[in-house]
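Hi all, long-time lurker, first post. I run a small reading group and we've been trying to get comfortable going from sequence to structure in the token notation. Rather than ask abstract questions, I figured I'd post a concrete chain and ask someone more experienced to write out its structure so we can walk through it together at our next meeting. Sequence below, copied exactly:
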Amino acid sequence: MQTTRLGTSGLTVSKIILGCMSYGEPGRGTHPWSLGLEESRPFFRAAIEAGITTFDTANSYSLGSSEEITGALLREFSQREDVVIATKVWGRMGSGPKDGGLSRAAILTQAEASLRRLGVDYIDLYQIHRFDPEVPIEETMQALDDLVRSGKVRYIGASSMWAWQFAKAQRVADLHGWTRFVAMQDQYNLLQREEEREMHPLCLDQGVGVIPWSPLARGRLTRAWGTSTARSETDEFGSTLYDAEEESNRAILDAVSSVAAEHGVPMAQIATAWTLAKPAVTAPIIGATKAHHLADAVAAVDVQLTDEQIGRLEAAYTPREARGF
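-- Answer (accepted) --
Happy to help. Here is the structure in token form:
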């Protein structure tokens, strides 16, 4: 597995990041398709053996049990200094005033809770899961800076917001001498490329690494259009992301299938290889609930697409509403 720097920061990450939303107790939270501890173990073992060093979760995934499983299995299969652990804050964890959002009180409370669940002394990359319009961005950025200065967080990142919001946060950090974001975790795949308009040029200009979520469009880029899975039938959030531009999406899937046939590999490898080929992208976040999901992600790092193939994959795309914020 290749490694690379996250943007222009000093943090080194693997070219494939294992997304840990797939791992959590099914009875907790809104992910009934997630895998419990015993079912998750083979995926962490395989990821470590494949050379994946970077793991992304969030406090809200399965109401904390994803962090618990991630921390437990990384302790089982690796040394702390050999892995990069990323988690997030913002999602609602309860009904209390410190249980959600990006106030100073919430950030500091939830960071401590994440550290306990992960079983670590520090978080490598702490990300705000969304933008919080109810809290002054100065309050959020100062709280994050305090976590970095305390040693409990090494780097900070953001996820899924408008480019102007991200630019505002970075400017506030610069004005006060606070820690800047080094990563943007946004939705980016062949069915949703709206981030190419503003966010990715901004990240390239500012040296921010892009670590996209859903590079396979919730699995839609891995199979024939309209095919359902246990996850697609129960993924309420995912069902809102790709229900428009059907004609364009069908044509994109046809192109993915065609290029996959030319390489003699599954469609998932082509969709992931396309993401890796984009200049703003540092490393995609891949979810895996079956062994071949992880194997395809690792293999995609070595798939080289020609300019002509990339052109065919992109040709049918049409402008669409940016979703997932």
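A couple of things your group might point at:
The two ends are 31 Å apart (CA to CA).
The first helix runs from residue 37 to 49.
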